[in-house]
Amino acid sequence: MQVERIPSNFTELNAVLKERRGRLGHFTSIDGSQLIALILYPQEGKASLLEIPLEGANSYHSLTPHHAQLHWFERATYDMFGILPEGHPRFKHIYMHDPYEENFFPLRRVHLPENFQSPIKRHFSFLEVKGEGVYELPVGPIHAGIIEPGHFRFSCYGETIVNLEIQLGYVHRGVEKRLTEVALPRMHFIAEAVASDTAAANALAHAEAVESMLELAVSERSKYLRSMALEIERLAMHIIDVGGIATDIGLLGIASTMGRLRGKALGLGDMLAGSRFLRGFIVPGGVRAASRTLSNFKSQITILRHELKEPLNMFLDNQMALERMREIGVLKNSLCREFGMVGPAARASGEAYDTRQHFPHGAYPAMAPPVVTAKDGDILAREMVRIKEIWSTLDTLDRLIDNLPEGQTQIEVPDKLPSDKIGLGVVEAFRGELVHLIISGPKGEVLRYAIKHPSFNNWTALAIAIRNNLIADFPLCNKSFSLSYSGNDL
């Protein structure tokens, strides 16, 4: 997707955000001497990059007090570039933990001001909730299950959660920096590994960004095959996420069945791409041809659709399950909008935003399914959205295979990017809006590779939704958002 680069200032950015003329897709810097805001215009299928020079300064008045969605963006930008958001209401690190030097900012390429000292220590400072009977309950970063590390600090009154603060960054790997160092032909290997459960979506966002810079038009067959990979990934993850909720409720028969059926969904990936996890399939220029044929693909969809009916119906007919989910972990639509939530979590609170309807990627928006929404914003609403999207994804796969064009699957791609260009890929991953932004320099080198994973938008939603709920409800609430640690930590 083409992006218009616009010199701007804080007044103009404030106006754009206040008037909601577009969505905030990303907020970061290129090298530390400026701030950039990616503004997405869903109704037009376009984007612009507002660039605000700092003119030698290393700070600015924080925008978070007026635009809550920016609170993590500003913290992340400080961690990576050392640009100080003065007046940020909850200023602390996101990625950079205790072992790092205080004045180490890994993506900054311009000199820090003389005698600069970081105003915050590396040690994470948790919000302290005071009052008689209030106590803290620390959980993690190492958990009982085989999951990634993250620390949850609960402030509780009895069994009720008064506040939750989340500390991430334990799996920060320097992905964005590494993507500026490798040659273009190998870049996609790193891009698709940002979060292993979102390999197809990350690979597609990377490919779309590279192709927009090179002004390449891939074949229609490639577009359809890419969308099939994306939908298989969505299907497999939605199935196992519903199974995860069943596990936490205690419906172990349904949970084990959903785990088995996820395996069948991954089998569709093997049939399409020769990889159950769809690795190495979507590349700039198209897709890599799989060794297997697609002759049985549609019949396998039919079988999977049939086998999903009984466990999903049992799940939705179980009154205990419904009571555990209904009116628990509510995320109001107003807060959903204010904090810029995306994906099923946002659609369950009434936000009818699905990038498949708006931005070109794969065979979309032409083959995009209808947007699935709910209005209650609780755990049940989030699961209803997922279950309805399981059925719509199966229907979409049917339509894609029925209308799959003939033709080549890959075109030749140069081994270097053009100079002074911007590339953008916006993809609807199974968690929501995923952004890959590439900015090249005068010699075609990558000056900035910025990724915004949907979990970056939605971790705050979990902290908001669990307030005033019981501690026992946290596992269900957490699973209902299905967030990624590595997707956030990059």
Relevant terms:
490 residues, Beta Polymerase, domain 2, Cytochrome-c3 Hydrogenase, chain B, 3 domains, four-stranded mixed beta sheet, 39% helix
Please characterize this protein's 3D structure.
The mean pLDDT is 95. This protein has helices at residues 10-18, 70-81, 175-179, 184-191, 199-214, 220-249, 252-273, 297-317, 319-325, 333-338, 343-347, 379-402, 454-465, 474-481, 485-489, and strands spanning 3-7, 23-28, 34-41, 46-53, 59-61, 84-86, 134-139, 151-157, 160-167, 282-283, 286-287, 422-429, 432-440, 446-452. It is 39% helix and 17% strand. The protein has three domains: 3-86, Beta Polymerase, domain 2 (2-Layer Sandwich); 134-167, no CATH class; 195-451, Orthogonal Bundle (Cytochrome-c3 Hydrogenase, chain B). It has 15 helices and 14 strands. It starts with a strand and ends with a helix. Strand 2 (23-28) and strand 3 (34-41) form a beta hairpin. The strands form five sheets. It has a four-stranded mixed beta sheet. A three-stranded antiparallel beta sheet has the order 7-8-9. With 490 residues, the protein is an alpha+beta fold.
